[in-house]
Amino acid sequence: MDWLPLLSTLVGAGIGIVAPLVADRNRWKREDARDARRLRLDVYTQYTTAVKVLGESLRAPAAREHPSDDERALALREAFRESGIAIASERMWLIAPQPVVKASNRVFHCLRGICDGYVAGTAVSSPEDRARWEARGKAAAEMRELMREDLGVGPLIERHSPLLDD
Fold this sequence. Notes:
Elements: H1 4-63, H2 69-82, H3 85-95, H4 98-119, H5 127-151
Helix pairs in contact: 1-2, 1-3, 1-4, 1-5, 2-4, 3-4, 4-5
């Protein structure tokens, strides 16, 4: 009996079965990576938007006159809570890689410091306030850079927000 035709048929059948399985697995891995990237983009967009909203939301109650310091503190803490930063931060902690989480946490704490400063009576645009905002701006720029790197997008040449002295 000649084994060569039988062996050729078995090898051909094996290739015919294995090749589509390998192709399907590779396609699944590409789709999974694409879905994970989309999810990170969504999380990063939600977080950076919450950072922007919170920044704008803190200045208004800080600049406004309030009947008492307690009402001012309440308005500022409510602005912090309503910005969505806490939910966005939790999503970041669950999804993002460690360097992005650390950078986003620095931004969060900068914003918390700005809020606490206003609660303590720091005047809007005072040197102390400007220093806090500048620290937040630098932390946010670093965070965005890490996010862009994680998403495979090239670095930005210009800064998102100009320096306060510009």
